[in-house]
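Lecture notes, unit on protein representations.

Consider one protein chain, 210 amino acids long.
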Amino acid sequence: MKVQREQTQEEIIQALRHQVNELIEENRRLREQLARKEPAAKEQDAATDTSPPHLNAIRWIKAATGLSQERIGRLIGVTRQTINRWENGEPITDAKRRRLFEVRDVLERAVRRYDTPDKLIEWLDTPSREHGSTPAELLEAEEIDRARYLAVSTPSPGLAPVPQWVGQPIPEAFRKGAEHRQEALPPSNDDELFELYENEDEEWEELPNK
């Protein structure tokens, strides 16, 4: 009868390490296979997707931000009902299509730095240290270039926040063209003072020249 030798602690550890290494290698091979298949799957999905580009843009914004239809509509300048109608086949105007694509372009730039929906939403709703407006407010106001700048720029940590009064409108009285000319001193209507001034001039003229 053959007696099995009991493994030592060192042998058990070596065997476990071998198994772990095999699992790591298998996991690496699976990741490589998925990485090779992913581009092909995306190309196949793109080839079979017949949705209009504006609907793809809306779906992308939803997936990237997790925003509701109402908030997405505010960014584009439409109501939630309008987005519903687009998704149900109603045509979109050229102006709204351009604005939708501009909003997606800004968000695509921002998502490179804020790579999760939570981070992207935080960026959208955080006021800029330069002028106090949030990126979402700029998009709603159709200030696309300023929102795009915030998406690609990194504010300096030592930059002091701009005072609130900077963003306030200029009072009407101080706007160009609204100024009123006013003399420093109004003209005098004191006739008696004017007569004294004339008499003094006459007295100087009567003095003989020496």
